[in-house]
Design a protein that fits this description.
CATH topology of the largest domain: TIM Barrel
Bound molecules: S-adenosyl-L-homocysteine, iron/sulfur cluster
Distance between the termini: 27 Å
Largest sheet: 10 strands, mixed
Strand order of the largest sheet: 1-2-3-4-7-8-9-10-11-12
Oligomer: single chain
Structural class: alpha/beta
CATH class of the largest domain: Alpha Beta
Amino acid sequence: MKPSILNYTLEELETLVSPKFRAKQIYNWIYNKRVDSFHEMQNIPKNLREELDAKYVIYNSTIVNKQISSDGSIKYLFKLHDGHTVETVLLLMRDTQYNEDGSIKHLPKYTVCVSSQVGCKVGCAFCLTAKGGFIRDLEASEIVEQILQVYNDNDIDSNRRVNIVYMGMGEPLDNLQNLAQAIKVFKDPNGLSISPHRQTVSTSGLSSKIDKLAKMDLGINLAISLHAVDDELRQQLMPINKAYNIASIMEAVRRFPVNLRKKVMFEYLIIKDVNDDIASAKKLVKLLNGIQSKVNLIYFNPYPGSPFCRPDTESVKKFQEYLLSKGVLCTIRESKGLDISAACGQLREQKLSGEVQ
Ligand code: SAH
Ligand code: SF4
């Protein structure tokens, strides 16, 4: 099988094509003009186009299902070259732009949630992706392609500001090399130019990999899926906690280089009668002491056969109010795309069980 050219940073492509200056033109065709074949690259000589076509492909995945939520979010199911499927979600939020002439413009603000693996090894008890086990890592190009295809499908201009969150299927730090490569491809000013400050890696807390990521000095934002404040409960929800307990995660976070104007995000999935009590909120405040942090509360999103229940709005609000009263920044994640089953892994599961075509 031919590799995808989306695997390479511009610097790498410069070593692969001759003369070197052609690499920038090719990058421009792919990431700005967004052609889907080498033959369309008009200012590239025919022999080089043929050589590229013989060695590489551009796109390797196809959109096999698409669901649009009432709030405008779109959930995609991609079929990879080997037939496996992964999900990508385009989240739409409203961005208000105040112009110098006093006019106000409402623009959609795009955030794309991408997958990093087919399945996941971590095995969290509340997560549908975990149920199917782990199949394989995504290649860097397969991560890059999710974004490009979402841009293409929505006619998003390459210079629009887009945020990326690595919160789709899989554990991104378990596929660190390919993740880092994709982050580098996204940030290239000749390509999509998505600054690492607008990219957030979410992890279940592989402390040693958090340190490795820190050493790579990519400038990305970090999000920790904490979900519980004592080891016993966290171990039940997230078996990975046996290998990397809460204390080890907090130490790794304290070592992580955080941009002065940024914060580490702590995700806390609220499950009814499991971790929605104020005693947990109190412990959370203590844990975060001295860390530049913000908390994102997430409603547990039930799926058929899930062992847990969605929490009451009341208890989530109380949890938030407690954190805010102690000076901890805290937002509640809107249930974007609830009606399109936006919790991680749900569209893929429906596809596998034949509920969607
Ligand atoms: N593996 C990484 C990133 C992907 S999971 C991680 O765990 O951080 C992205 C987020 O989806 C995590 O915070 C996870 O806890 C959340 N999630 C998983 N199952 C969910 C469910 N049923 N309802 C709501 N959020 C869920
Ligand atoms: Fe993997 Fe994240 Fe799901 Fe846990 S929540 S099983 S780490 S994808």
